[in-house]
Design a protein that fits this description.
seven-stranded mixed beta sheet, 11 helices, Cathepsin D, subunit A, domain 1, alpha+beta, 464 residues, ATP-grasp_RimK-type, elongated, Probable alpha-L-glutamate ligase, Rossmann fold, Dna Ligase, domain 1, five-stranded antiparallel beta sheet, 23% helix
Length: 464
């Protein structure tokens, strides 16, 4: 490696931290380099702790923030030039300058008043650098303009993330897979019971608390909210959204998709095919409600039904009247739907992530059961879907603004009909039927979404 000559100030890059241009001060009086970071936070298991921090790479531009993370390799007491000592976390990262690169140790400290974002100490310079202390910027100039470019987001390195899975059932296949796959990628994944969260709601510092402590800053949350706690669960998601945390599925989309009446109104407004549906709070004549849908057989469905519970097939008009009267007697909210006979007890589950169908399976009900839910003994197999079915599933998920959704379709003579859009789809059935790593595809989207966002374009000089 050819030795480079540095002046007292140079441009460098720390690509592993997502920092393509930093102006640094060379300080031969310091042993270890120091990066001026803020919001420094430790996370991950005690055996392999990581640190997450933010940095404003451009002096005076606090509107541009890059979030970085790295494994902690040490913690040292460092004495500054004014004689003050502090304990600092130490990380290791690659330094790039003049077409060459090598690993350096870096301490993290919050010095908001410092003009230079970083000091380069002797360890970073050893064997690689000659110093000309009376000169500056002897290596190629870089530019802060890179932080305004979309390329920064596309090429930012994958960093360790802190992710919360909102679930009351940590032992289920879906929750376990979310933890296992995330941790295999180097992330820290924590399962939090939604009902044990509580919120501090105020304008200046909204927070989410859990078991007596304020929850840390998460890079992303993955809601797995059961039907029984939808109102409170979506309120917690909304609080995370207020803080600025990325949620795979937003609170509004979860709320709308979970309410079957609301969901069908959304689908209808987007002109997405679905079985003919009718709803009324208290019709004077049951026959009027049935006539809006058509002739028997009919499906009578509780608005709060999940996994096939509260869904009844009425094969005759008299049976439909009896079921409707029974539901009304229980003061239950329900809707009536046309029964798509040609579907023959089969439906198609399309798993949509980030606007793409990543997997699909055909589900068939158990013998004698028109419901195809796997929880009720149904079976599943991989299926090839048509372009129209694919487009319908994508449009249905998009209509609720869901980043991840299970869209259930019926194949009818008049084209695909959307039965339901599920904001907390299970992964077990579709992963086993298709052999695909669905959870991995979800993490691909999360990792892409939490990369640094390009800042607003602003004219800068070569001096930054």
């Amino acid at each position: 490696m050819t030795k480079l000559t540095f002046g007292w100030e140079e441009w460098i890059a720390l690509p592993e931290l997502g920092l393509p241009a930093l102006k640094v001060k060379v300080d031969t009086g310091a042993r270890t380099s120091a990066l001026h970071a803020h919001d420094i936070e430790v996370f991950g298991p005690p055996s392999k702790p990581k640190v997450r921090f933010n940095i404003h790479p451009i002096p005076g531009r606090e509107d541009i923030t890059i979030t970085c993370s790295a494994p902690i390799i040490d913690r040292r007491e460092v004495t500054s030039s004014n004689g003050e000592s502090e304990q600092r976390f130490v990380i290791s990262t690659m330094l790039e300058v003049g077409g060459q690169s090598w690993p350096i140790d870096v301490t993290l400290t919050n010095r908001a008043g410092m003009a230079s974002r970083m000091l380069l100490g002797r360890q970073a310079l050893n064997e690689h650098i000659n110093i000309t202390a009376t000169s500056r910027r002897l290596q190629p100039d870089l530019s802060y303009d890179v932080y305004h470019s979309p390329t920064v987001r596309r090429t930012a390195p994958q960093r360790a993330l802190r992710i919360a899975v909102m679930s009351r059932e940590p032992g289920t296949y879906s929750t376990r897979r979310l933890v296992e796959v995330g941790e295999a990628r180097g992330h820290t994944v924590e399962v939090i019971d939604t009902t044990r969260c509580y919120m501090a709601i105020n304008a200046l510092a909204p927070e989410v608390h859990y078991d007596g402590k304020r929850l840390p800053r998460y890079d992303a949350v993955i809601p797995r909210i059961g039907a029984s706690i939808t109102p409170y669960g979506t309120a917690v998601v909304r609080q995370f959204e207020t803080i600025g945390t990325y949620s795979v599925n937003g609170s509004a989309g979860i709320t709308a998709s979970r309410d079957k009446l609301h969901a069908h109104q959304v689908l209808a407004s987007k002109k997405i095919g679905m079985p003919t549906t009718a709803f009324a709070a208290s019709p004077k004549d049951t026959s009027n409600l049935m006539a809006l849908v058509g002739t028997a057989p009919l499906i009578v469905k509780l608005l709060e039904s999940t996994q096939g519970k509260g869904v009844v097939l009425a094969e005759t008009k008299k049976a439909a009247e009896s079921v409707i009267d029974a539901f009304r007697g229980l003061k239950a909210n329900f809707l009536v739907q046309d029964f798509v006979k040609e579907a023959a007890g089969e439906d198609i589950r399309c798993l949509v992530i980030a606007g793409k169908v990543v997997a699909s399976m055909k589900r068939k009900g158990a013998d004698g059961d028109f419901r195809s839910n796997l929880h009720r003994g149904g079976t599943a197999e991989v299926v090839r879907i048509s372009k129209l079915e694919r487009d319908t599933a994508v449009r249905a998920a998009r209509s609720f603004g869901l980043g991840m959704a299970g869209v259930d379709l019926l194949r009818s003579d008049s084209g695909p009909k959307v039965l339901e859009v599920n904001s907390s789809p299970g992964f077990e059935g579709i992963e086993k039927a298709t052999g695909k790593d669905i959870v991995g595809k979800l993490y691909d989207e999360i990792e892409a979404r939490v990369k640094p966002q390009p800042g607003r374009k602003r004219k800068t000089t070569s001096d930054g």
